[in-house]
Amino acid sequence: MQELGPFRVTEDNKTLGRNMHAWNNAANVIFLESPAGVGFSYSNTSSDYDLSGDERTADDAYVFLVRWLERFAEYKARAFYISGESYAGHYAPQLAATILLHNTYNNRTIVNLQGILVGNPYLDDKRNNQGTIDFFWTHGVMSDEVYANLTEHCDSAGEACSGAWDAFDAGQIDAYNIYAPVCVDAPDGAYHPSGYLPGYDPCSDYPTIAHLNDPAVQEAFHARMTEWSPCKWQGMSNSTPED
Question: Within 13 Å and on the Cβ side, how many CA atoms surround 225?
Fold first, then answer.
């Protein structure tokens, strides 16, 4: 509802408007909440959350995809692409590898995988940290002193790296687009963009979160009534296995 989907939430939090840049204008798009517990998805078995991980996520997504193709068989021969952002730097290639493995087995539903797309992908702490540090420094957002401190202490994740980041103040900028306006919060609870950029609303979080937490909307989605949030950090770890 904030990027490539067919609808955007309007400022009244109650109505939807068409997204003229939606990907489904050019392709059939499935939006999958994965792993279980993301968004409105859930498991009736609480232990599933304790067992979640990259491998389990790929296996579960593969099962969903195969069952979907069996239910809608007219799409079996269509070219299929996996796309995602952020931690999809793990999810997308791992699901692709799972698909390619199962495609080699006899008597299995073949997924016509043609490629993957990842935006702003999370790879591992070292690569992502260094990429962020280099970008901010070369674009004049970070001082030489902070750059040197981060480069020295962020060879791997840990308290020293976190402490080095604490000394960095990026100010009022959007880390994902340093030239874009940001959303400014007022003391009275109001909010407004700091500037105008066609097609981009830095305050879109607010109406989207309000809309998805509307009980009537959740009922229309046939979703389990819950407090929806963009990210759920419980149980997450900064560590990344080497293998």
Answer: 4
